[in-house]
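Dear V.,

Thank you for sending over the compound details. I've combined the ligand you provided, flavin mononucleotide, with the protein sequence from our construct and run the structure prediction for the complex. I'm sharing the raw inputs here so there's no ambiguity about protonation or stereochemistry in the SMILES, which I know was a concern on your side last time.
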Amino acid sequence: MTDPAPLSTRVTDLLGVRYPIVQAPMGWIARAQLASAVSEAGGLGIIETSSGDLPAVREEIRKMRDLTERPFGVNIAQLFVRDPSIVDFVVEQGVRFVTTSAGDPNKYTAALKGAGLTVFHVVPTLAAARKAVDAGVDGLVVEGGEGGGFKNPRDVATMVLLPLVCSQLDVPVIAAGGICDGRSMAAAFALGAEGVQMGTRMVSAAESPVHDNWKAAIVAAAETDTVFLNRFSRPGLRALRTDRSTRLEQQEHVGMDEFGTAMDLYFGGDMEASLALGGQVMGRIDEVKPVAQVLAETMAEFYETASHLARFVAPVGTGG
Ligand SMILES: Cc1cc2nc3c(=O)[nH]c(=O)nc-3n(C[C@H](O)[C@H](O)[C@H](O)COP(=O)(O)O)c2cc1C
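Below is the predicted structure of the protein with flavin mononucleotide bound, written out as structure tokens.
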């Protein structure tokens, strides 16, 4: 398969990438092995800091420079990394693009932008989007509640949130939550996005460092196989349905101490040891694929879907 044509949007222009497809930041997963594969394939790989292990993150950024000369970004998950030196840390690494998430956009935006970085903030509501734009961000990652990971307990689906934000605010938007292929990417573009971010799809990619049991669970999952924990508490989160998460789903409050031992699940493959964060889109993922294949197929299907939709253009002179 020849490489699909590049696509130019405000997002690709800001990020300097061939395709407006971003790999989601994910603690311990969004590291050099996965992120470099995404950047090499023409998308944007992102290195996480949410594990809080900054020396390891520094090493991953160093590895990135060996593995790819293409652009990549870093995520600052504010809830997990409270160390005020995080901005200096990110700036020192020479990274050009940062997404900030899980916190107040006023906290780091000015400092990051002052250092010349491009900043996108992750938002789950219109009010949060307005606040981020007021804080001076360059763009938004608009994340619907069907996505995997930590969530606003008052979750709003991508189908509602994305057109709402895009109709009210004129900044470049990357859509997240529920996107795994060209069809869902085209839908996000129809709703106003100029780029997409994939989380669960990337957890299940061949280059993802997680245990094969987790990838197999994503492939086997139906669209109903996620649970939302802490619906009436914090932190809200969406994860794969397992015996453990099904039991916790009934609890009014699930504390971090009940999350279990993540490493035994992530890399040991014990799916009951902790919570496997993931989105409803796992019901649409039925194969582990290399990142390059995911990106090439997504772009080919995106173009195909867009030309298919062109069939519905109103004929000239019909008042359409
Ligand atoms: C395993 C996992 C870990 C995640 N960790 C983070 C994180 O550290 N920071 C963050 O901003 N989002 C995090 N997220 C959310 C993703 O960045 C992404 O926006 C979301 O997965 C998109 O929805 P999708 O899973 O339907 O693709 C995580 C998601 C998953 C599945």
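A first observation: The chain has a mean pLDDT of 96.

Warm regards,
I. M.
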